[in-house]
Write a structure and sequence with these properties.
The chain is mainly alpha-helical. It contains ten helices and two strands. Helix 2 packs across helix 7, helix 3 runs parallel beside helix 6 and helix 8 packs across helix 9.
């Protein structure tokens, strides 16, 4: 089963049955929690409910390891930058190691690790949301959460539709990129081997067709919506109305409790104060 951010996987699980508004709100709050937290013990505790939701969604656990690939790449890139940017301090918790006349400070390692962990959490949390929520439910959930903005004449429905379409296009573009890579490989393009110059040339052969395909699919989608008489400014009614249930309240309460715990930790009140 191919699992990518933005791709819905139909199933009948506890996470699938949660109210889309609750899932969206929990997703936003969890990302806030991940960025506020600076304790590795805290990240370990946050990981427990996140992995539990992932397991309840009946998604393959091995995909968690495949999600590490972009995180490792980002981590290595940021680590190289942080070596030259982050200056060593006299903090007793961090040590400086000299390697080939290059001083690698503990702060550089710590900062890189924090960013990598945060990116990894964001990928997992967003994957759970998009894999367990239908695009139409995602759109309506976004619209309901942004409903107060209608007071100031904010185009809530249009923005919700744009975000939902953008998320839906992610797996489509990934599939297209795989198809183009196979087509170019059959023509002799080597994406794996060669020096930096050869890799740049091979990447160009992928990016240009991908851009052309993206604009073509966007135009086809626009024509299809126009043919069906879609009017973004028309007043809409709903056949199905959402209702908050018992498990929705419990899930949201747990996430809010985690947010309060992290804020208390930042203030040095909780059991795991943040080392600012």
């Amino acid at each position: 089963m191919q699992l990518t951010v933005g791709k819905y996987i139909p199933n009948d699980t506890f996470v699938h049955r949660l109210d889309p508004r609750v899932k969206l709100l929990c997703n936003i709050l969890l990302i806030v929690i991940v960025f506020l937290n600076r304790s590795y013990i805290g990240y370990g505790i946050i990981m427990i409910p996140v992995i539990t939701c992932y397991a309840f969604s009946k998604m393959p656990i091995r995909k968690l390891l495949s999600m590490l690939k972009p995180v490792i790449f980002i981590g290595v890139f940021l680590f190289i930058i942080n070596i030259f940017i982050v200056k060593p301090t006299s903090d007793q918790w961090f040590h400086t190691v000299t390697w080939w006349k290059i001083k690698i400070s503990g702060e550089a390692v710590d900062r890189t690790a924090l960013i990598a962990v945060r990116v990894y959490f964001m990928i997992i949390i967003t994957t759970i949301l998009t894999a367990t929520t239908k695009p139409i439910d995602l759109t309506r959930g976004l619209e309901d959460l942004m409903m107060p903005l209608k007071i100031i004449k904010f185009p809530v429905h249009i923005i919700a539709m744009i975000i939902a379409i953008a998320l839906r296009f992610i797996p489509t573009l990934l599939e297209e990129s795989q198809r183009i890579m196979k087509a170019q490989a059959s023509r002799g393009v080597d994406f794996k081997n060669g020096g930096p110059k050869a890799k740049v040339k091979s990447t160009v052969t992928l990016i240009i067709p991908l851009f052309v395909t993206s604009f073509s699919k966007a135009e086809d989608l626009g024509n299809a919506m126009e043919t069906r008489g879609y009017d973004p400014y028309a007043k809409r009614t709903r056949y199905r109305k959402y209702s908050i249930k018992y498990f929705d309240v419990i899930t949201l309460s747990i996430v809010i409790g985690m947010l309060v715990w992290v804020i208390l930790g930042m203030c040095g009140i909780s059991a795991f104060p943040m080392p600012y």
